Amino acid sequence: MYDWLVLYNIITNKNAILSNLLMKVISSGYKIDHxxxxxxxxxxxxxxxxxxxxxxIILILLLVGIFNSLSKMQQPLSSVAKKMNLWLMIAAxxxxxxxxxxxxxxxxxxxxxxxxxxxxxxxNPALRFWAVEHITGMIIAIILITITRGIAKKSTEPAKKxxxxxxxxxxxxxxxxxxxxxxxxxxxxxxxxxx
Length: 195
Hints:
mainly alpha
């Protein structure tokens, strides 16, 4: 049996005879025992892990943003607060991209419309949560977070800016908390994936 690294080295070798022979062996259905890993499942698990842990980063950054807006209402945003707002938006957008991939290609989300039908999905609370409520709530929250980035960059009076930031941070936080699949709500979704 060949290891994948050995196979790669042989295929990329300038020796065309060995490469052609190896390609014929592989194309004839020869199985390599060392490559039993389901790569799609591994990628999906990694994305789900990232999606789950990024939510905690987003929640922490939202709480820090709320605290900053409340405690420094009359002061202009510091460079640290602006960077925190930028990292909040980056984390939210990465989570959105991963979530959209999971929604359209994963085991929960759009697939429920295909397999169960719209009427059946809307009648079942668990299916409706995964197919409609979770994605809709999170997209709205990420839009609010993105708006906070624009507010943070504008040069307006500090009190007005901080009030707007506070409002959008709180709205985003409430929507995210309502849209998170908390443990026990719809099955055995863990609070911390990978722990």
